[in-house]
Design brief:
Blueprint: E1 12-17, H1 26-37, E2 45-46, E3 54-55, E4 59-66, E5 74-81, H2 89-92, E6 99-101, E7 108-110, H3 120-124, E8 131-133, E9 138-140, H4 146-149, H5 162-166, E10 172-176, H6 183-191, E11 207-209, H7 236-246
Parallel strand pairs: 1-11
Antiparallel strand pairs: 1-10, 2-3, 4-5, 6-7, 8-9
The chain binds iron/sulfur cluster (3 copies).
The site of one iron/sulfur cluster has 14 residues, from helix 2.
């Protein structure tokens, strides 16, 4: 059991715009690249060129097809990484204190030298945002590029998370949600930004901006009738996402 701070001086996090994300995975690659080259041990891959490749990624993008009652099907791309929750169950469940939330900026981190690889935090996170590194036997997660944002050796324009710096669509924004005048606070307020699965009570710092409906003209999608749904009945995170996107 590890304690969370009662409050943090800043609330650093991301705004991710589901309206403009094109699912290009550039943020996934830049995240993997930066963290493999810099933070802790490299993010390992297993059988990267084999039949069943797997690996450690701190940011992943899932894509969903939404079929409205009328009109063309719409693709929604959903990037997902740690949301640096205020009431982070991944921290309180940790038996060694390896998982912690920083008082100065609210970033949730793992001290790898204290991690015993029990995996409890991964079970506790409702978003699937933690990744066990199979080679190192320790838990890894998004650090909000803590080794970039304060890094005086980098040019000032590079002192933001690698995913934000890379996104070609301008769909990712970084800032302090504790400041109501910050760019991320203003953007969230203006666009109706929402919490991911608020019913979990984790108070995620990261926010998502909803996708806007596409053309509502009478149009025929020639492919949609041929696409079989991947799952008829959804559960857990996917079920929540299904309901959220159903409002489109
Ligand atoms: S998203 Fe998951 S790993 Fe990140 S702080 Fe919240 S509960 Fe913890
Ligand atoms: S895997 Fe590591 S960080 Fe996660 S709960 Fe166990 S000791 Fe803590
Ligand atoms: S880089 Fe930007 S547009 Fe590409 S998947 Fe990531 S968030 Fe979406």
């Amino acid at each position: 059991m590890t304690n969370l701070p009662t409050s943090t001086q800043r609330k650093l996090g991301l705004v991710i715009d589901l309206d403009t994300c094109v699912g290009c995975h550039a943020c996934v690659i830049s995240c993997k690249g930066w963290n493999t080259e810099n933070y802790g041990a490299p993010l390992s891959d297993q059988q990267p060129y084999g039949a069943d490749p797997s690996g450690t990624f701190l940011n992943r993008v899932h894509s969903y097809e939404v079929q409205p009652d009328r009109g063309a099907a719409q693709l929604v791309h959903f990037p997902k990484s740690c949301l640096h929750c205020e009431d982070a169950p991944c921290v309180t469940v940790c038996p060694t204190g390896a998982s912690y939330k920083r008082v100065e900026d609210g970033i949730v981190l793992v001290n790898e030298s204290d991690c015993i690889g029990c995996g409890l935090c991964a079970w506790a996170c409702p978003y699937g945002a933690r990744e066990m590194d199979a080679a190192e036997g320790v838990m890894k997660k998004c650090t909000l590029c803590v080794d970039r944002i304060y890094n005086q050796n980098l040019p000032e324009e590079d002192r933001e998370p690698a995913c934000v710096r890379t996104c070609p669509a301008g769909a990712r924004h970084f800032g302090d949600f504790g400041d109501p005048d910050s760019h991320v606070s203003q953007l969230t307020a203006a666009r109706g930004g929402f919490d991911l699965m608020p019913e979990q009570g984790t108070k995620p710092v990261n926010k998502y901006l909803p996708p806007r409906p596409r053309d509502s003209l009478d149009q025929t999608d020639v492919l949609a009738p041929f696409l079989e749904p991947v799952a008829q009945e959804t559960k857990g995170f996917v079920a929540w996402l299904d309901r959220a996107l159903g409002a489109l």
